[in-house]
Structure to design on (236 residues):
């Protein structure tokens, strides 16, 4: 996912960019409100999935920038600021911010909020998800020898059907729809099991091991140590 980080403090931005990159984000850093607005122009490249917007910018107030962003794009905006008073939070949300994070914050909470606003936006985006034809048909996901049929929930390897449990299929489908992207353990648990990470971690590990065994492709799902998992699309 492309993420626009609007932060005038280079030291803060560098640390945050490194953490976000480690978790699979492609980060663009804007140091002012004007830089942020320029980055969001339609001809500036692929769209951003989320904007992290600091309110203390050198050229204009972050609230003003948020209002301008909302007028030109529906990209989710998360305000990141030291302003903890309720009035500021309400003002930001009324301007169109999707979430409001107060400094200092826990990095895992920030990641969870980024993924949460992304899911909410995707759920209301008709173009989200696998490409489909006008009649609603979902073409299969093909990852080398692996074929995943989303409507029928069937998986095959080199043409041979592989029997998966419901959760195994949901887990594989989640990873396969964004090959190469690192999914945090907490995010996977939330998406597939619809619950929190606590007490469910071992279940995820067991399902990952089972998928690797059933597909007979141990390298298909890579463990990103200390973070989570990603699907490595095979060649051929």
């Amino acid at each position: 996912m492309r993420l626009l980080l609007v932060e005038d403090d280079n030291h803060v931005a560098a640390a945050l960019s490194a953490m976000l990159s480690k978790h699979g984000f492609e980060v663009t850093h804007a140091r002012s409100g004007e830089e942020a607005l320029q980055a969001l122009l339609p001809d500036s490249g692929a769209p951003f999935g989320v904007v992290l917007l600091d309110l203390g910018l050198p050229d204009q107030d972050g609230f003003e920038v948020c209002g301008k962003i909302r007028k030109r794009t529906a990209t989710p905006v998360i305000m990141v600021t030291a302003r903890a008073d309720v009035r500021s939070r309400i003002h930001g949300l009324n301007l169109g911010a999707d979430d409001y994070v107060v400094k200092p914050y826990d990095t895992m909470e920030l990641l969870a909020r980024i993924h949460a606003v992304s899911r909410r936006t995707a759920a209301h985006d008709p173009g989200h998800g696998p490409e489909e034809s006008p009649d609603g048909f979902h073409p299969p996901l093909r990852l080398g020898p692996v074929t995943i049929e989303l409507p029928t929930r069937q998986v095959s390897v080199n043409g041979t059907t592989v029997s998966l449990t419901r959760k195994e299929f949901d887990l594989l489908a989640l990873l396969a729809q964004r090959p190469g992207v690192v999914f945090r353990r907490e995010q996977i648990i939330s998406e597939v099991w619809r619950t929190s990470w606590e007490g469910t971690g071992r279940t995820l590990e067991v399902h990952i091991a089972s998928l690797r065994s059933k597909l007979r492709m141990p390298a298909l799902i890579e463990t990103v140590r200390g973070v989570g998992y990603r699907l490595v699309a095979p060649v051929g």
